[in-house]
Amino acid sequence: MLLKHHFCFFLISVSVAQTESDTSYTVPNPSAPMMPPYSIEYFNDNAKAIPADTNLEIGPKNLPPVFKPKVALGTGMLSFFGDLYNKHYQAPWTSRVGYDLNVSHRLNRYLQINFNILFGKLGAFENTTNRHENFQSEIRAGGLNLVYDFGNFIPDQYRIRPWISAGVTGFEFLSKTDLKDRNGETYYYWKDGSIKNMPEGSAGSQFAKDLVRDYKYETDIRERNADGFGKYAERSFAFPLGFGAIMEVTPRIDFKVGVQYYLTTTDYVDGITNKSVGDRAGTKSKDKFVYSSFSLQYDLVVDKKKAIEDTVSDAHYDGVDWLAIENMDYDQDGVKDFDDNCQGTPPGVKVDKNGCPLDDDMDGVPNYMDDENPSPKGFDVNMHGVALTDEFWQSWHDHYFDSLGIDRATEIIGNAFELASGTKPNVNANAAEKRIYTIELARYEGGVPSDEMAFLLSIGDIKSTILDDGSTVVYTAGTYEDVKLAKQRRDEFVAEGNKQSKVGYFKNEKYFTLTEEELLKAVNDAAASTTNSATATGTTSTNTNDNTFAKGNIVYRVQLGAYRNKISLKAFSTSGNVVELKTEEGTYRYVTAGYKTVMEAATRKADLFFMGYTDAFVTAYKDGKRIPMSEAGATMATKEKEDLNENKTFSSVDKSLISFKIQVGALKKPTAVADMDERLKGLEGVGKQTTATGMVRITVGKYSGYDVAEKARKEMEDKGFPEAFIIATFKEEIISLQEAMELLK
Length: 745
What we know:
single chain
């Protein structure tokens, strides 16, 4: 115990299991300013503290890069910004069409590299008093961009996110101008705005005929050589700067819009520069163009199971072959793991489309384990599929109970921790009848949305309660004996925008909601009772909730686990009040009560480490959102970024504390116990445990895995114990097999 407290005092661990790599923090010691700061450090697999200044390299090493391309095909408008037009600006309706092809690859959580090809036309026409110029240029470009999509700030579940980009592009331009109509006659622009076949004011111009532009760009600008530039290069470089947004349409298809501004290194695209002759002279600025586009992007690798990759940190899992994982079939039954509802099917066993062993007689025991197939309809069966007849039940009764039946008892197997203590609770009847008021914030039959989950966890005294229907969960805040205080807090929640907040109460471990009329009556009754009490005693009573968190406070919690299947709350009974939340993705998340300081949370985390929750970690919430620990009073001692993804599955439980045993009997009569002792003589690992109902549970062996335990069970069956079955324990307390398998994932 002394060692434990010494360790907690100096090395309080806040191991962040949901980060891209574990992160260390340093927090100030408020009580000892002359001492070095407390160091909140890592634990390695051997539970040894690693100094915070250690340079850790975390993640897979020496793995070859995996190319996971996305292909996008888009179209848009190309607008020219050069020497034409007085304001050097082109109206969108005079722009030309362009097409682009992009192949992108994600480098990490927030950066992508993009290889792009662009085809299209640029063009412009200026018809002013002094200048009549036009051109059209064929553009062919190719280059690469670096795209930043704010992935280190925006959670993965958001379907729309902005992006910005920068890059380099090489392009060529084949520029031509329209100087003649379809009959080969040259355009002459007159002051009245018309186009004639003769110069205005020339001899015989009174007989000039009108021409109409055919918009056929027949004259090569470079070959025309109007300014004496000669055959300049019709290729150059450009530096595109872009921005836009991307929206996920399906797991494989994204819709992308954006604008890219190309800063070129040439001034010859329109054939006019500041060195052009006479009225043709332009500016010193280089030519530029803009491509405004939309596109559809298709993921060539990720399919509908993309959610698996979305729930992990890209940086931490660089080099993982997700396609191989997607196609994995661990038990080799022909059904991929992602679609397999019954993992671990023995080799050679026939399965259905869901990967579950066939059960022809539908008695709950698969064919390969069924010793009686088909079993008689209407009968319960044992674990071997054999019908439990009247003769069996009579024999069972005679073996477990005396002839008078006065020692009847029932043992519950598989209900985690319900019988762990072996004692009955001492309930105060008066206290049970008393109303404890609270504020109901939300209730859900399904999963809690991510934003709502963060809001609930940012309330320090939040509590989850499952209603009698077994599916509805009510989330409440605070506990008050005085209904007036509960109403006051309810009103505060309503004023903050939580209009659905209500006052309810717990009584006899059941929850009830008050209507507004019932609440007003309860408040009036309480006020009258307080007045009468004050008149009689000369005092007034107060009622406060010491665990109330002020608005704007940071709430610290210790994350205990997030599982695909529900875990009994009593699996975390050693860690005080536990809040269970079911996410929209179907994950069950378990966290401790809220703490007001990071030191309190860190101390709790250190305690949990010694209790078997070695991978528990601390998180922080404020104003309805989860915030990084670096913003919550803890200074990061390493450069790793905390992953704020709330949808990942993880387990904090030390897997070595989970074991499987073979139960051969749960006996009541001493003679039956003695008889079983005789039958088990010579076997190793025989254990006895007195249950809460006074029965003696007898087990054999202790195994770390279910497969090993199943092999041992079959051996016990061969030795004459046909009814032997496997039980699971966590810290030597019985849990269901489903919970054990979930905790071991």
